[in-house]
Amino acid sequence: MGKISFFEKLKTGLSKTRNALTKNLDNLIFGKRVIDQELFDELEELLILADMGPQFTYDLIDDVKQRVSRNELKDANEIKKVLQERMDAILRKMEKPLTIPKGKPFIIMAIGVNGSGKTTTIGKLANLLKSNGHEVMLVAADTFRAAAVEQLEVWGSRVGAQVVKHKTNADPAAVVFDAMTKIKAGYSGVVIVDTAGRLHTRINLMEELKKIKRIIDKEAPGVSPEILLVLDATTGQNAVIQAKIFKEEIGATGIVLTKLDGTSKGGVVIRIVSELALPVQYVGVGEGVDDLRVFDSSNFTRALLD
Predict the structure, then answer these.
(1) Is 116 exposed, middle or buried (0-12, 13-18, 19+ CB in 10 A)?
(2) What does the pLDDT look like over 102-124, one tens digit per residue?
(3) CA 259/CA 276 separation, integer angstroms
């Protein structure tokens, strides 16, 4: 049996969202020749339930109404094509894959709330980068959750990446300082910093993350860090709220969306990108070590709507 392609995994992973969105959309427009207000109302409800957001939904329906008035749409079945066009346009506009050079230090600061799959995602990302020929160092700056340090060590051993750590409850910034010292000493690979995610102590958490970023900026001035926000897709609208907070407070530069296979709300990708102007860099569609991949907008919309 041949190895399943990532596109097939993505399609399978998005099955809950596809069933909620595409099948219901097909049922809604099947056999309908008339595009009327009743259809618009049902379409609005469908898109909102898929967590695509009110703005995208309003813009799509407005686009469909304008096309109908210009006699460009004569059949309800053509609405699906308009939906795909608008999704493609939004995602392509913000598609900015990370360019990670070899032979130079590159810093990724992973942020996100506890439970988003952050530490596991870091391990999978380290595996992906190692498979692409990068040297990887993991930094255990989530020092208050002992399991996070142990988890990172397991991943380091699994993928062959060194782990910089201190004792439990140590100052996270001190751990990061040690990692930056290694860059000064000549380390030229990828550094992935794991951070705490206790959002219920929001002020303390944000100050801690800002301190880590200041250490990176000060000790590695020529290396501007990518700040990747790990979001759990199953949280739907909450993921958008988290993204807004972390972008405003810390300056998140991109998104890693995990657990897409466990939700019917995969449309949240559209909402995050369109409302927050943040690119999705990686997506996770399963438990396997190879189930984190670079986000590809055309594959995403095909897997969702075809």
Answers:
(1) buried
(2) 989 999 999 999 888 899 999 99
(3) 20
Q: How many whole angstroms separate alpha carbon 107 and alpha carbon 74?
A: 52
H-state helical runs in 186-229? 202-219
Least confident range from 38-42, 108-112, 151-155, 181-185: namely 38-42
For residue 303, give every residue at least 6 positions away whose Cβ sits within 8 Å of its Cβ, in sequence order, or none: 7, 10, 11, 13, 14, 18
Structure tokens at 56: 């995208």
Residue 97, pLDDT above cutoff 60: yes
Question: For the whole model, what pTM was predicted?
Answer: 0.91
**What per-residue confidence (pLDDT) applies to 134?**
96
Q: Which amino acid, residue 12?
A: T
* Strand duo 162-164 + 226-232: pairing: unpaired
